[in-house]
Amino acid sequence: MRVKVKPLECTGCALCELACGYHWDEAFSMISSSVMLYRGEEKKGYMGVMVKTPEDLFIGRPEGATAMKLGELQKEGASGGASAKPILIREACDLCESAGLEPQCVAICPQEALYLE
Amino acid sequence: MDFMYYGDILIVDLEAGTTEEVEIDEAWRAGPVLPAALELFRRHAQDNPLLLGSGILTGTTAPASCLGFVLGASQITGGPAVAPLDMFAGAEMKLSGFSMVLIKGNSPDPVYLWLHDGVADLVDASPITGKDTWRTCDAIREEMGEQLIQVVSIGPAGEAKSDLASFSINYWGSGDNAALGALMGAKNLKAVALRGLGMIDAEDPEEFYNRTMDLLRGSPSKKGFDWVSRGPEDEGIDAWLKPLAHRHRSCFACPCACNTFVKYNEDPAVMGSDGVQEPGLMVTNPAAALWLRQGGWGAEGACRAMEAMTRAGIDAVRGAREMSTGPLEDPTEIAAAVEALTGSAGAAWPRGEGAGSGIFGPRTPPQGSEDRWLEVNRAAYVLGICPLFLVTSGVELSELLELCLPAAGVEVDAGGIKEMFDRARA
Known about the structure:
By secondary structure, chain A is α+β, with helices and mostly antiparallel strands. Chain A is 20% helix and 27% strand. Chain A has one domain (3-116). Chain B has helices at residues 34-43, 89-95, 133-144, 156-159, 180-186, 205-217, 237-241, 286-294, 299-312, 316-323, 331-341, 370-383, 387-392, 397-401, 404-408, 414-425, and strands at 9-13, 18-22, 50-54, 68-73, 80-85, 100-104, 111-116, 119-124, 150-153, 168-169, 172-173, 189-195, 245-249, 259-263, 280-283. Chain B is globular. By secondary structure, chain B is of the alpha+beta class. Chain B contains 16 helices and 15 strands. In chain B, a hairpin with a 6-residue loop joins strand 4 (68-73) and strand 5. In chain B, the strands form three sheets. A six-stranded mixed sheet of chain B has the order 2-1-6-3-4-5, with helices on both faces. Chain B has a six-stranded mixed sheet with strand order 8-7-12-9-10-11. The chains are: A alpha+beta, B alpha+beta. Chains A and B meet through helix 1 and strand 2 of A and helix 6 and strand 13 of B.
């Protein structure tokens, strides 16, 4: 079971990042989130969502969704996003099991762009 | 403030090139909200201040908590005016490490203010002087090495102190229809760049979070502009834009994606990022498109005109009124027509269209009476919730006001908001 993304449904509100950040920090911030909106190419209207799991990075691009092994990404020197705290150095998604909750990013997404499978 | 705000108030003296941090007056128990800014504005009136801040709930999981504010004296109305700091800029303002910023005086040389992680820097803006808002945003992000910086900037219209000037947010048009962009130009302030990795604490985080989740579950999740239309004359704007529509975009934490990204330099169906570098525009305000459509413009020409106005730092809504009499299609002619507006004073707002809307500047109410719209705006800015969401979502204002207790440990109701504004006026 993992969190997956329907990238074309996403409207970029970042509520998933906030909910995940709350799960880790009990505060509102996007610095610790295991899910991250990719919004580094704003002028192109290009946007996607990434989810870091213990094994891989699930990348929901508008062109399609893929999972890449963390080792492969690190070998390529990829940062996983245009952020001051790249997703590869953040906590991996635990499906909110440590809080005894359903995955909060899925629960909060207004567009149902995130789902469990 | 222990909760909901992050950091002190920053006072920037452009003339002296100095900054200082001061604590918020404890009498403002709800924090450095818009009425507190209005009080500071009056106290520093001799320095012609420009203030940026956010609402109590801005930057949280409260639905549509995207709203911050820019406050300054409007050269159109002659009094204080407010413009929304929305998209991601309101939340980034709160996370920048400063709860509010007051920028006083005029700089002898062009500068931009860079706020990040509790640090404030005045940066030489001479290399970007004269550049449009797109190039300004590109240059600041490139210089600071961070693509997520939110850039509130002016273009040539602001530098020329045009009555049509409006600040842009990143590459897109803002709700500044009171010429606060011209105020930035008068201050020699090319931009305010915002980025922060702060955390916003709640007084009772679990209670607050659970209540916001309940509100989000009951909120609509709409896309496009039609759901915020003011009446029959506004209908069909989404269908008009549809041949160019690429994706809909939300502001921060908003379940409703009003903004429409349109492509006219590339097939709108192209989803990858390998193609055209500047494929189109994010349409952030349907009013500009409506004016142009009423003037007989086609959607592509209208979108090109809106892009040109946003690049020049012209309020696209008022600019569209100037241009609506002559529909154009040729990009070169459109660019020339917009350039001719850059130093223009623009036509006066007709009476009855919001010119008397006090601190909220000239603005047409999207629905209902002007008094009702002002009341909604006041609550929206204090809370940090988009006013369009407040009037169209079906979520009750009282439900959002009740969030202030678990959020900040303060009780706020509609009467309390009125008292805050009365106190700011006193």
